[in-house]
UniProtKB/TrEMBL annotation:
This is Uncharacterized protein. It comes from the Bacteria.
Length: 64
């Protein structure tokens, strides 16, 4: 089982890449809408996982 620090680090990494994907998605929307949609889909999957990580962090903090 990963430690709280590892989960928190993973959440930060997820958020970093979500922001990068969203920025590139916006930039590419006019020139390559299919790629922009793909980036949006990847960001959505990462966002779902980030939400799960945030829940795990909150649960662990409540246990402490």
């Amino acid at each position: 089982m990963p430690s709280l620090a590892q989960i928190t680090g993973s959440l930060h990494i997820h958020n970093f890449y979500i922001e990068k994907l969203k920025a590139n998605q916006e930039r590419l929307f006019a020139s390559d809408p299919e790629l922009a949609q793909l980036l949006d889909n990847v960001a959505a999957v990462l966002s779902e996982h980030a939400a799960e990580l945030a829940e795990d962090i909150a649960d662990r903090e409540d246990e402490s």
